[in-house]
Amino acid sequence: MTASTAYKSQSIVLILLLQLAASNAIRSQPSGDLNWIEQSLALLGREILSAETYSERNAANQEFDSLLLEALKKPESLDYLFAEVKNLSRIQSQDKKVVVYTWLLPKENPGEHEFYGYVQIRDKNGKILLHQLKDETGQIPQPEYTALKPERWYGALYYQIIDVRHQSATYYTLLGYKPMGKVIQRKVIDVLHLHNPKKPIFGAPIFYVQDFVDRRYMRKPFRLFYDYSASVSATLRYREKEKMIIMDHLAPPDYSKKGIYAVYGPDFSYDGLYWNDGHWHLKEQIRFDTGIKDDIPSVPPPVRRKF
Length: 307
Known about the structure:
Distance between the termini: 77 Å
Helix content: 10-25%
Structural class: alpha+beta
Largest sheet: 5 strands, antiparallel
Number of strands: 16
Radius of gyration: 23 Å
Low-confidence stretches: 3-9, 20-32, 294-307
Number of helices: 3
């Protein structure tokens, strides 16, 4: 038996043991034992990311999904952090009414992923509503202009949530990561709103933006895409101090490459989105404190000669 074959056999055995243990333990553990579920999710999460074959990763993912669903049905899970589950992103709104869980499954082709998720919502009566997210990215022809239900979701790994209000409505703005293959990375600025907590909607025309990363919008988009080369890093994050979503300004190396996002990268300037009168507005060439301290003095000290 080769080392590769032995590794595959061990992985399959591990998944089967985890599946058996999980199904048995869910029945035997106390109803509030989220700690045990967390440890089991952590093991499965590592397998989702590191197993050698897609079939092994997918088997672990199915059990992970089932086990997380069991956990999220428990009312006390709304405030449980699942900190040991490193492949799971959990973000909670500032008003404590919404928790969004997302994770990804690496597919067979390098750089391609499937996305999974759940949304917990606390309604005005204190009841917890749970919605499963189904990634339908390939079935959404114009995602920039489409409002989506949880069962028809533009999948992403969300890493930040920003509560913004206009009149009586709260819009939960979501920042997410969505790799698009081996050459392009995408970050998504989406929005979740709850006119009816039983029917949450992703996407809303709250972006008062005509041009964004060299995309021209003829009407207000429902979400924004921030695309750049997979060979570079680019920052897109809300900063409370500035009250803005601040991002690296992205550009191609020369004008002839405009729209070819595989070559886009930061140009060492910054743009921002700020909330005003019910919309996100774009402000270019902003200045802010990056937090990076330069130890090199701006004026060199005088030369001290020895006589």
